Amino acid sequence: MKDFQSLIIEATPKTPQIELNPLTGDFIFFGRSIPENAAKVYEPILNWVSEYIKEARPTTNLRLNLEYFNTSSSLWLAKIVKVLVRINEPDYVLIIHLYLPLDEYEEMKEFEDIKDVFFPVADIFQFAIPSIGIKLYGTNDMEEVVKDKMVFI
Q1: Angle in degrees, CA 122, 43, 70, rounded to 5
Q2: pTM of the full predicted structure?
Q3: What burial letters (b/e) apply to 107-140, b meaning 16+ CB within 10 Å?
Q4: DSSP type of residue 94
Q5: Distance in Å from the first CA to the final CA of the chain
Q6: Tell me: the pLDDT tens digits for 32-50?
């Protein structure tokens, strides 16, 4: 993994800031994701992640701090998660960090509520090789984290 470089994509009004660091295993998506051509934005990321899983870190953190994303972006994010759950080390951990407005965070009181949010991609988790954790963050109007909780699937 010596030659494997970080991938940084600057934000635009329609695309998020994206930072993928193979040395730390931190993958950050921040901002809005409403590109007109989601494949143009996300396909290089999917290819990068496919290379990363060959020599993944013991803990990979996928941080999704997206204030808004369209349907095509969600499909590409699901593809990225589908690749990450194929990290071929059962002792490794994939933690998906989701940042939500505090009112949405407060609505997710029970594990069933959290499961419902992930229902569209639940089949992806079913065949995961690494352990999967989901960490929810409740953020205030200034995007500061004021509450959090961890859920393992």
Answers
A1: 60
A2: 0.88
A3: ebeeeeebeebbeebeebbeebbbebbbbbbbbe
A4: E
A5: 29
A6: 999 999 999 999 999 999 9
